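Can anyone check this?
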Amino acid sequence: MADQPEEVTRLVEAIKAFEAIEDDEACAVAVSQALKDWPEHQVRLRELRQRRVQSMKAQGKTWEEIGRLLGGISAARAQQIAAGVSGAQRRKAATQKKVEPQDG
């Protein structure tokens, strides 16, 4: 985990701490409490990433450079992140394209 940011390491360690709870009931309750608030945290993380990607672009980085920094994603995906397009939105759009009737 040496190549991960400290914050990522701490998040993984927190998950391991849940796994280490021996009492099934206590573990299930603790995990449920964490999951209850997860959607809000996930939104905040996505918005934070979006702002930082926009900032990197404003500083002159190319979409290709940003994609590499974000773990080797495509330039197009980096651009979508900056625009606030989520993976779920992309999958939904792709599904809708598949089911639309073709002109002919």
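Reply from J.R.: I decoded it. Helices lie at 6-20, 24-58, 63-69, 75-83, 87-99.
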